[in-house]
Amino acid sequence: MKYTDIILSKDQTHFLYDRKNIFNKIFLQALKFHSEGIAAVQDEKGWYHIDMKGQEIYHTRYDRVFGFYFNRAAVIDKLVWYHIDIKGNRVYPENYFWCGNFQENACTVRNFQNKYFHIDIYGKVIYKEEYKYAGDYRDGFACVRLDSGLFVHIDEVGKRINNKEFIDLGVFHKGIATAKDHKGWFHINCSGKQLYEARFFSIEPFYNGFSVAETFENKKIIIDEQGKEVLVI
């Protein structure tokens, strides 16, 4: 049996296999199984993780737990956050005000001064800078917000990938990211160069060469990679 064969019920209280309650258990709440074959669940004593036999993988109960990513799960323990491994052991001694999930062996965290930065899977801080906000890594890059309020992209060791700053930014997808300047939203490449002159009220990442955009006249359209309207939707 694969972890994908176990389905979380629609009310998120139990797990189904072949349309039957596989563990004969009802939880207060549950999250789906991830690739490690582990799921987060809550009972009357608190949150914890179970394996594909429905057995707890450790005895501790937490205020909240989340799914495993890269063999690490974020937990809330007496109002502080940190990560545990798949044996239930704490990964590092530091506490945080908030933790994200590991993506590409890095995770964004927020300290008690409300500053964001990234740590590696051992809890080591990846770079010295601290930001107003830091997002997940994707394709080796992450978006961070400077104290000025502007956004930039950084690489896997925390270095800025270009000298461009924007009002807002999205993550890269196949070498293209969404960006916003004082005129509106558009798309850029890894050098921070705009792909076209047009600006929009909102845009989405490109999907097989085309993107959904909304004009300042509240018209939903499809644009190509040159920013040209190809269809009104």
Q: What do you see in this structure?
A:
This protein has strands at residues 7-8, 15-17, 20-21, 29-30, 39-43, 46-50, 64-69, 72-77, 80-84, 98-99, 106-110, 116-120, 133-134, 142-145, 151-154, 168-169, 177-181, 184-188, 202-203, 211-214, 220-223, 229-232. The strands form 7 sheets. It has a 4-stranded antiparallel sheet, with no helix packed on it. Strands 1-2-3 form a 3-stranded antiparallel sheet, with no helix packed on it. It has a domain at 162-233: Thrombin, subunit H (Beta Barrel). The chain has 233 residues and is mostly beta strands.
- CATH topology-level fold name of the domain at 162-233: Thrombin, subunit H
The unreliable regions are none
Main sheet strand line-up: 19-20-21-22
User: How widely separated are the two ends?
Assistant: 43 Å
Protein structure class: mainly beta
CATH architectural grouping of the domain at 162-233: Beta Barrel
